[in-house]
Every structure is written in C-alpha cells, then in structure tokens.
Amino acid sequence: MDLKEETAKANAKLPTLEKISYSFTDMAGNLLYVSMSSYILYFYTDVFDIPVSAAGMIILIACIVDAVSAIFWGSIVDHTHTKWGQSRPYFLWLAIPFALSTFLAFTAPNIHGVAKLLYAGITYVLAAGVIYTGIQTTISAILPNLTLNPSERIGANSYRMVGSLIGSFVTSTFTLPLVAFFGRGNDKHGFMITIALFGVAAVFLLITAFKNMRERVPVSQKSLPFKQSLKATVGNVPWYLLVISFATFWIAQADRNSFSTYYAKYNLGNAELAAVFNGLQVLGIISSISIPFIVKVTNKTATMLIGLGIGAVGQAMMAMVGGNFVLVIISWSIGVLGSALAMSMPFAMLADTVDFGEWKSGVRASGFLTAVGSAFCIQLGSGFGSFIPSKILDMAGFVANQNQTAHASSAISFCFIWLPVIIYAIVAGIMVFYFKYEKMEPKIKDDLLKRAEQRNK
C-alpha cells in the first residue's frame, strides 16, 4: 500500500455498521459495570450485610488497585500486535471473564467476618477492576486507531455514548424489578439471576463488536516499551488536564449513581423509585446525539463546559423543589442531560491527546494514554465517589434498613444533590485551560501527516 492509499485509509469515513458495533462495546460494559457502580454499595450494606463504612473502604481500596491496573493495561495494549489489531482482540478475549467475575461479585455466599470482606474485595477487584479496566481501556484505545478523521471520531464516540446510555438504562431501570421478580423476597437469589442474564447479553455484544470493527491507523509493529509510553506524557498538558478533570468528574458520577437508591429508599420512602432515577439516564441519548452539532457550533471544550453547567443547574433544582416527586424528576432529568454531555466529551478528546503526544514526543502511545485517561480516571473517581459519601453517611449515623435520623437524611440529600454540584464547578475550573490546546489540533494533524510523508520518502 502506497502513502496515498495509507493516508486515505487512516482518514476513512467509518461504516455505520462499525459505529453501531462500537456502541455495543460500552453497551456491554455498562450492562455489568453500571450494575456495580449503581448497586454494589447497596448490595453490600442491605443484602450482603456489610457495614457501610467497611463497604465504602472495600470499594475505595479495590478501585485504587484497579486504577493502577489501568496503567499496566495501557502498556499491555501498546505491546499487543495481532492480525486483528491492538485493541479489538480484547473484546473477544475478555468477554466471558468479565461476565463471570461480575456474577461472582453479586453472589453472597454464607460466610462471615473477615472471609466475607475478603470475598467482596477480591470479586470486586476482578469484576469492576482488573477485567472491566481491560475492557474500558481497549474501548477508548481503539478510537484513535479507527480513523484520523476528527469528525468521524466525534461521530463514532457519539454512537459509543448512545450504546453506553442504553446499557445504563437497561441496567438501571430493570435491575431492581428483576431482582424482585426472580428473587421473590430473596434478594440474594434475585441479584444472581439478574446479573447472569446481563452477563450473557454482554458477551454477545462484545463478540459482535469484535467481529465488525477494524483498526486502520498504522501503528508501530514493534512493541512499545513502558518507558517509551511514558514519553508520550512528557509535556502533554491537554492530557494532564483531561486526566485530572475526568477523574474528578467521576467522583460526582459514581456518587449520583450509587446514592439514587439511598435517596429513593430513605428520603422518598420507596427504594424502587431508584429505578426511575437511574432509568432516566437514557435521556442522555439526546445529549449524545446532539454532540456533533453542538461541537460544530462551539467546540469540544465549550461543549463539555455547557454540559457541566446544565448538570449543576439540574442538581441544584432538586434541592429547591422539596418533596414534589414530579418536580424532582424534572430537575433530575435536566441534570442527566447535562452530565451525559459532559461525560461524553473526554472520551473523544483523549484521541486528540494521543495525537498531541505523538506530535510532541514522536511516540504514539494509544493504549497507555487512553487507559490512564479513561479506565484509570473512572476507577479512581468511582472509588472516591463511593468512599467519600459512605464516610459522610457513617459520620451522620446511617444504619441500613432502619428509619434514618434527620441528620442521616440530610447527609443522604447532600451526597445525592450538592456534592455533584461542587464537583462540577471544580471540573469546569480545570477545563477552561483546555481551550488553548484545542485550537492547536488542525496544525498537529497536518504536522503528523507531513512526518508520515517524510518517513515514507
């Protein structure tokens, strides 16, 4: 293949089937991961009978371990060279282990004391950690290798986020009703059967994605040593900004997901209303579909800031409407639209930081940069997003399956409503510095193509 053909292939317009298949990756991931991020804390405290402080600590420790594993996953991807590409084969290889480990995390064997805590910690590390981190790393790492075309990257990422939200919707809306249906009063059995069904669906989606996707952007055929991967971070300021802001954002996201059940059960008096809160996450599809149009009118950084602003307004409105459930739902829906918009952008922007790293250092470390920028941030943020609120609840005197004191109820409201607002403001303050680097992207892509031409002369 000559340079002209190679360049055309690297800048290819992606087939619709491939974009849909890309959406299946995050759809599968969220069928299982959102089950954990939304319900594992509740499962530990109200089903597996683990104290809230211990449950929060388990999740924090596990997520820190998993965040560190993301760094190694990035290096593993950069070392991978198969006839299927760098990232794509992992959709096949990790599908069944992902489903099985998540099933074990939601299994509550009849054990006690330290053994129970060890079982919870080990299974959580495997499911939400090591294996999901591998899935999440490759979902993000494959995007810069599908095409160099920035519009196609934004489009593919929008499909991905729609799939992500559909997976979240199914999990969030139907988990508790299915647990009740299959368990018939025994939530332990109900969770096992429900997660098993989600696992089968996730395996099918990941294998379908593996079958239909292709990696087109040329990468070095030599394994990229870890030290070389690190070189891609030197001076990569836009990557630093995304990593810090995205990890911080996921504290709010994990907090919102996990505390909807507590807010519904203890403050609104009906735990199954959590399915309404979480099910409304599907409205984020509207935000995902609108991203290419908003980016055209503004840019990627402004789109993320708009999302953070809308999300903060929706959260704050919930505090102002009192116990009126209809108004609470309207406010929550506005918050969902904003958070979905803000959450989508870093995934697309990470592909640009891979280009920046290659432009700055000469090293294209797709696996490492996207692993830290996505899986590492999600795991670290999710860990603190469960740990911080759990400590607030513990200090407020929360006791599972009991009527809560006014102090504990206020703590639940603060964690569910105001903590995300505070975090959104912090993230927005970080992201305003990204404008400068987004303006450089056209020059960076031109320079990279010129370098490719010189290498091939």
UniProtKB/TrEMBL annotation:
Keyword Lipid biosynthesis part of the UniProt annotation: no
GO terms under biological process: carbohydrate transport; sodium ion transport
Gene Ontology CC annotation, any one: plasma membrane
CDD domains the UniProt entry points to: MFS_MelB_like (cd17332)
Keywords from the UniProt entry: Membrane, Sugar transport, Transmembrane, Transmembrane helix, Transport
InterPro entries on file: MFS_2 (IPR039672), MFS_trans_sf (IPR036259), Na/Gal_symport (IPR001927)
Gene3D superfamilies membership: MFS general substrate transporter like domains
Molecular-function GO term, any one: symporter activity
Membrane spanning stretches: 20-42, 54-78, 90-111, 117-143, 164-183, 189-210, 230-253, 273-295, 329-351, 363-388, 408-435
Domain of life: Bacteria
NCBIfam families in the cross-refs: gph
Name of the molecule in the record: Sugar (Glycoside-Pentoside-Hexuronide) transporter
